Amino acid sequence: MSGGVWCGIGIERPKTPANLGTLWRSAVCLGADFVFTIGDRYHRQASDTLGSPGHLPFFAYSDLDDFLTHRPHDAPLVGVELADGAVPLESFTHPRQAVYLLGPEDGSLSKRAQEACQAVVSFSSRYCLNVAAAGSILLYDRHSKLEWRRRPMLEAVG
Q1: CATH code 3.40.640.10 for 6-146
Q2: What is the pLDDT along the chain (158 residues), one digit of tens a residue?
């Protein structure tokens, strides 16, 4: 198979910087190549104990149009949402290159964002999960199925 294995993960309309910091840390630990937000900005805070900004690129898109115009065009957009017709994560085959999009902490992916996705995945949970936890589960599933390369351990930045 030709081409590299890479992905990015982001949140549409994130509500709190703490959740983005936690997702960013998981992205560093589980081999993602970049993180992003649509409609908000990241500010360093306590949940980011690795100093993730020094290890993984972050992109802030002003709105969905900005994101759709500038996202990597060769990678499928995969939404993570409890939606009719979503593919169960347990049986989902991750593309070698992918951009994953999660909804906000207090809502769902916008209808327009879901329509822009080439695939939508979901996974079972007794209750609604925190967005950073959901993103971490998704990245771990990708990591385990694709046997992603392991990045060297990073020193925490104080």
Answers
A1: no
A2: 346 889 999 999 998 888 888 998 899 989 999 999 999 644 545 555 555 566 688 899 999 999 999 999 889 999 999 888 999 999 999 999 999 999 998 889 999 999 999 999 999 888 888 999 999 999 999 999 986 555 444 444 44
How many Cα atoms within 13 Å fall on the side-chain side of residue 44?
A: 8
Please report which helix (H) or strand (E) contains residue 145, including its range.
helix 131-146
Where do the domains of the chain lie? 6-146
DSSP secondary structure of 77-140: EEEE---TTPEEGGG----SEEEEEE--TTS---HHHHHH-SEEEE---SSPPPHHHHHHHHHH
Strand order in the sheet with 119-122: 58-61, 34-38, 6-12, 97-102, 77-80, 119-122, 87-88
Query: What's the CA gap between 123 and 134, in Å, rounded?
Result: 9
